[in-house]
Specification:
about 450 residues, alpha/beta, 12 helices
Length: about 450
Amino acid sequence: MTDYRMLRGIAAGAAMAASVLLAASPAVAAPVSPAAVPYTANQTATPSPTPPPIPDDPNDPERAREYWLDGAKIRQAWSVTRGKGVKIAIIDTGIGKPPVIFDGAVADGTDVSGVGSPDGRTPVGVRDPNHGSWVASLAAGRGNPDGTGMIGVAPEAELLSISLGFPGSASTTPFADQVVKAMKWAVDKGADVINLSFTTNTLDWDESWDEAFLYAQEHDVVVIVAAGNRGSGTAMIGAPATIPGVLTVGGVDQTGVASTGASTQGITIGISAPSESLLGMSADGTLRSWDGTSGAAPIVAGAAALVRAAHPDLDAANVINRLIRTAVKVPDMTHTPDPLYGYGLLDAEAAVTASLPVVSSNPMGDLKEWIRVYRRADAPEPSQPEPTSTPVAVPPLPAVEQPAERGSPLLPTPESLRYGTLPLLALTVPGILIALGVTAAARRIRLERGRRTPTP
């Protein structure tokens, strides 16, 4: 059984590594010209508004393209906070070094691929090396000092850059091992939010991820993951979006309708955010247009940073709860959570300002309990209990006596006479006597009838 599970784990890991996809549609990227859960009785207080510390020009052509700033009420949330004091870890291809947008934003970084730079700031991979920069710019891009240019959802939050080598890169380190190392590094460096904008296209995940994701959750980190995209071949969500406790983000278009190409579906989707016609800053400073839940996830990660900054006393479970409980339901939702929309569309202002009861557990599930239930087959066999009483010795039965010499099979044995022949004779002899008596009586009766003289 152990060998079987080992082979199964190796096969699952190989399948996962071969199917990892960035949750984006890079083929459409193009340059942009400038132009339910138990509650406790406590309530969280509504934070007091503060003046926005960074200029914001809604009429700037580039910033005007960020329709989610108003659609998800991010600008309204900025009247309270812009994420100062919160760290967002971007586990991706690495955050590049374009001018302005990340100035002072990246607090630390590392490379877990073995082919990037030690600070995690060199884009890794041949396909979509700018992916990590696009993701980071949506989460916490700074914008220009005059209030123009692209800006992130939490423009005062700090970033941690962890560069991964996705399948197809030059990395020789197994992808599952890279994710484990990246998660633990991010937690140890003080990440409050971790963003994972990729999918493996498999429901299951490498068992080493159990410990890594549990490590993040036990250290009070909000983990945000992308659901994946049909346009990239993801028909249903895959790990890490299937891991209990993470907040999985689905994608919608500009009108708030679930995207047919830049999103997918699944029962673990918790919230939806824009995933079409997004903006992203490349490592070379080029502004790009792109689609995918890879972009929807950092929008929600930025909103989680706003909530954590506004409510520093709340744990990760309550941050997630505020995001999903304040989400805006849409008419297409058949039930809650919905496999396309989760609990609804992101509303950053409500997530920051609403007064909600405090929850005692993560509404997106309990990974520790899942591990206890579903990994128990791999647990060591329980030891045998020690006996509590002294066993009673029972003397053995005497051996069966064997005949000294083997008799002829044609002669009767004492056992056959005792249990076969004698009982048969006891039943047969009386039967024969009774039959003879009946026959004699019948013959006498016939003779008597023959002597009688008939009368006229």
